[in-house]
Design a protein that fits this description.
five-stranded parallel beta sheet; globular; 5 helices; Rossmann fold; 155 residues; alpha/beta; 35% helix
Length: 155
């Protein structure tokens, strides 16, 4: 099934005007709480691939634009990992990051920027100052698992 613009069908919705911040969540086979991952990328195939790769072990929410990613975060900030593309046509990853951190400062340490390497001088400057990790496309699923493990172990 093809992803639609702003596809967030896996999102457990909050009431209008309310942000979801859940302490718990469903648990996996090991009894450990399933990690929640938000993927924000304008390439629907990447989000679909990540959802399929991790659906047995993690809850994956996919937003196929910067704008729809922000809509998700305005309702729900409880993510263990936010994977966000740097270069998107509507709202770029730099703006998504800044708005996300304004919504909830805790998101800064869970935010990972993804890039294909081609970016503007402004993006280069932003990445030089960005304290968090980044993933260079293409990447292996093991890299995502490793990042998630590091972030979850830090608390």
């Amino acid at each position: 099934m093809a992803e639609k613009e702003g596809d967030t069908r896996d999102l457990q919705s909050a009431r209008p005007g309310e942000r979801r911040v859940a302490a718990g969540g469903p648990t996996g086979a090991s009894g450990e709480r399933r990690a929640r991952i938000l993927v924000i990328d304008d390439e629907p195939l990447l989000g679909q691939t990540l959802r399929l790769a991790f659906e047995d072990t993690h809850d994956v929410v996919v937003a196929t634009s910067g704008r729809s990613g922000l809509e998700v975060l305005e309702r729900d900030v409880d993510f263990d990992l936010v994977l966000c593309d740097l270069a998107m046509p509507d709202v770029n990853g730099m703006l998504v990051y800044q708005r996300a951190v304004a919504l909830d400062a805790r998101l800064a340490r869970h935010f990972v920027l993804m890039t294909g390497g081609a970016f503007t001088p402004a993006a280069r400057e932003f990445l030089a100052k960005h304290p968090g990790p980044r993933l260079e496309k293409p990447f292996e699923m093991a890299e995502v698992e490793s990042l998630l493990g590091e972030l979850r172990s830090e608390g």
